[in-house]
Task: inverse folding
């Protein structure tokens, strides 16, 4: 009576496999299923709908369409809940919960009988968590993006979350707009359900998922509330059934070539810096490592082509109208690994051929007319960040990219909150703001607090940008000359822990350098004088987190979740499986 597919997979351990299936079928028939339905390939659908997650507010419609696609293709759809994480509703920070969601996703895929899984995700951490979990589970898996929100209109100006959220809050802090206007714009910034409408982390991960070959073609760009998005959902369901029949498991798609394509796309879209951390984590699940130096080399030859906020002008819905990721890939074609397999069973190159020649549009530029001549992200090294740091150069101020200044140090996020707006703060626009202890272990969860606000007295004087450095992350919707992901972080005794007020710091994006101009002996003396005590916890998830979380270059994944024997990935020659 047992079988290793469909409902017969992964039987509960009662010591009698026949009885286990008999019992399982008896229970599911309680929901009204027939034997004919239960004999079909089972397609799991990871349902991340939640009242706390408006970025997934269209989950019910998507699930309905996925189910239609599954049934049209002869499968049996079974949706199941997993953790859902929204950026604004996760304390202390969504990143703290990403690995938990990945474990939930992995274990639910493993535990429940399914031949393939559709992953419905959209908000920043959900897509990476799902890809991480599915990569570890190893089944055929396909990503369905929830899609971006629509843009709104405030007093004649088009607005969208969340670059404009930050811009208007900056205006409020600087006294340029009053409380009434702040309340008015608050109604317009998120004009519908769906993910942030700029090239923030959610849009970045959507594009990365498509570049990895993990969505159906065109799966990244349709806004959440469009018919195109629903059609993508139906198509995704049908595709999942075919993947189950073909045994197209996720390891055949998440190859070194796929990660190289994803890195190219990340650079060319001026994508969120968080994309690197998530890519490193996903790669780690299939035994690969993102080589940051290779990413930097690729960045020097991969210009930013996508004219989307925060690096450019447009919004995600404009990108969709311009043809979406296919339009971008067409321009990037000479730089891509076209042999990479996708969820369709065809290669990226074959899909590009099928997508046709494209049309005139003004959102994606050509290689010879880029938005920014290099990739959006540069990788920095130096004695302040021996394990690398990064800067989103496409969102930075050109005048600050070669800069030397005096450090103004904040020991942690609370210290920053207490003093940043004080009139007594000894700070000038030429100084370098340094924030410690917001790394993976420090905060914990590496919050998006790296977007250190301009001190109030300087903001009021019209200062818009300063060099800012931390071991934390930054929202993909933010902009400024901001050095992030300093590794190792302060909380584990990285050199950042020993920076003091008045130290000189040099940033040279041209030389890819971030240097603390303090002699090594002095740093060693400070370390001896004030040794770092790593944070610990008594119980619960926090204990697991602090014991197991890796640094930014390893994706902030838990060490025990990474595949054994992780090798190197990046440029063609450094790819080792
Ligand atoms: Fe969900 Fe921005 S808060 S995508």
Result:
């Amino acid at each position: 009576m047992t079988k290793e597919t469909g409902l017969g997979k992964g039987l509960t351990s009662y010591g009698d496999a026949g009885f286990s299936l008999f019992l399982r079928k008896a229970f599911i028939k309680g929901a009204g299923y027939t034997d004919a339905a239960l004999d079909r390939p089972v397609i799991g659908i990871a349902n991340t709908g939640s009242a706390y997650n408006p970025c997934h507010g269209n989950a019910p419609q998507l699930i309905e369409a996925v189910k239609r696609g599954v049934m049209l293709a002869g499968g049996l759809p079974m949706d199941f809940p997993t953790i859902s994480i929204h950026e604004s509703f996760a304390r202390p920070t969504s990143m703290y919960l990403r690995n938990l969601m990945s474990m939930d996703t992995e274990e639910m895929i493993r535990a429940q009988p399914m031949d393939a899984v559709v992953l419905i995700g959209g908000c920043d951490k959900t897509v990476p968590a799902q890809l991480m979990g599915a990569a570890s589970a190893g089944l055929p898996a396909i990503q369905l993006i929830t899609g971006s929100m629509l843009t709104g209109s405030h007093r004649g100006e088009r607005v969208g979350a969340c670059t404009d959220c930050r811009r208007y809050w900056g205006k409020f802090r600087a006294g340029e707009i009053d409380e009434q206007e702040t309340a008015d714009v608050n109604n317009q910034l998120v004009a519908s359900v769906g993910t942030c409408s700029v090239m923030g982390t959610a849009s970045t991960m959507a594009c990365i998922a498509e570049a990895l070959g993990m969505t159906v073609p065109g799966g990244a760009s349709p806004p959440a509330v469009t018919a195109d998005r629903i059609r993508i959902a139906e198509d995704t369901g049908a595709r999942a059934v075919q993947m189950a029949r073909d045994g197209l498991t996720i390891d055949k798609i998440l190859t070194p070539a796929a990660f190289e394509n994803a890195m190219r796309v990340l650079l060319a879209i001026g994508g969120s810096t968080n994309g690197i951390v998530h890519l490193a984590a996903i790669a780690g699940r299939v035994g690969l490592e993102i080589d940051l130096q290779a990413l930097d080399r690729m960045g020097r030859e991969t210009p930013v082509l996508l004219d989307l906020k925060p690096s450019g002008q447009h919004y995600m819905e404009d990108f969709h109208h311009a043809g979406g990721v296919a339009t971008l890939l067409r321009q990037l074609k000479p730089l891509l690994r076209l042999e990479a397999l996708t969820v369709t069973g065809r290669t990226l190159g074959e899909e590009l051929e099928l997508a046709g020649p494209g049309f005139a549009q003004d959102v994606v530029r050509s290689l010879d007319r880029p938005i920014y001549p290099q990739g959006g992200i540069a990788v920095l090294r130096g004695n302040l960040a021996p394990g690398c740091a990064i800067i989103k150069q496409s969102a930075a101020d050109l005048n600050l990219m070669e800069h030397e200044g005096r450090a103004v140090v904040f020991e942690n996020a609370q210290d920053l909150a207490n003093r940043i707006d004080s009139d007594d703060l000894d700070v000038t626009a030429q100084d370098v703001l340094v924030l410690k202890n917001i790394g993976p272990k420090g905060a914990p969860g590496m919050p998006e607090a790296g977007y250190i606000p301009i001190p109030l007295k300087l903001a009021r004087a019209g200062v818009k940008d300063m060099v800012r450095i931390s071991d934390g992350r930054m929202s993909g919707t933010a902009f400024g000359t901001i050095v992030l992901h300093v590794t190792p972080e302060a909380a584990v005794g990285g050199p950042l822990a020993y920076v003091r007020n008045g130290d000189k710091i040099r940033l040279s994006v041209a030389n890819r350098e971030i240097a603390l101009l303090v002699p090594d002996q002095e740093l060693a003396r400070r370390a001896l004088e004030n040794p770092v005590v790593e944070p610990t916890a008594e119980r619960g998830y926090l204990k697991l987190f602090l014991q197991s979380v890796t640094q930014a270059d390893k994706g902030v994944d838990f060490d025990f979740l990474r595949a054994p024997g992780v090798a190197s990935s990046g440029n063609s020659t450094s790819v080792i499986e």
Notes: The mean pLDDT is 94. The CA atoms of residues 218 and 467 lie 37 Å apart.
